Amino acid sequence: MKLITAIIRPEQLDDVRADLESYGVQGLTVSSAHGYGRQRGHTEIYRGAEYTVDLHAKVRIEVLATDEQAYDLMDTIVASSNTGNAGDGKVWMVEVYDAVRVRTGERGVAAI
After folding, report:
1. What's the CA gap between 8 and 37, in Å, rounded?
2. Helix (H, G, I), strand (E, B) or coil at 31
3. What are the TM regions of this chain, as residue ranges (predicted)?
4. How does DSSP classify residue 98?
5. Digit-coded pLDDT (tens) for 44-66
6. Residue 22: which residues within 8 A CB-CB, separation 6 or more?
7. CA of residue 112 relative to chain centroid, distance
8. Under a CB-based contact definition with an 8 Å cutoff, are residues 11 and 87 in contact?
9. I need a labelling partner for 49 at 20 to 30 A (CA). Which of 33, 99, 107, 111 fits?
10. Cα dihedral 99→102→107→111 (10° resolution)
11. Which of 58, 61, 55 has its CA nearest to residue 74?
């Protein structure tokens, strides 16, 4: 099993979610995040005062997948979240050794 984690632009969430659901993903976790990558921060002026915005609003998506699905799901997330601009995000995958569905006690791939 693999855990796929994606940090993407908030406005891309609906597209990513729709594409994951059409692929057959039955569950995912979404949380708010703030951060920056290569684009760093930028300076804005509000009511005559200049200030620096150095943490950008992002969305973190986590999906458990079988080994067979993992790369296809990564490609799906990348394709549906790509705008071609700096700050589109990042997607990575880590090995999951076990998972348990709390309600039923199912383990491993059955818990996905």
Report:
1. 11
2. strand
3. none
4. -
5. 677 777 767 678 889 999 999 99
6. none
7. 17
8. no
9. 33
10. -70
11. 61
Give the separation between CA 107 and CA 98, rounded to whole angstroms. Answer: 7
CA 37 to chain centre: 15
The answer to whether residue 43 scores a pLDDT higher than 80 is no
Q: List, in order of start, the domains of the chain with CATH numbers.
A: 2-111 (3.30.70.120)
Rounded Cα gap, residues 75 and 62, in angstroms: 14
Q: What residue type is 24 in one-letter code?
A: G
Q: How far from the centroid of its chain's Cα atoms is residue 32's Cα?
A: 10
Residues in contact with 108: Cβ distance below 8 Å, sequence separation at least 6, in sequence order: 1, 98, 99
Question: Six-digit token pair at 2?
Answer: 């693999």
Residues 64 and 101: their CA atoms lie apart, in Å, by 12
Report the DSSP beta bridge partners of residue 61. 6, 30
* H-helix or E-strand spanning residue 50: strand 49-53
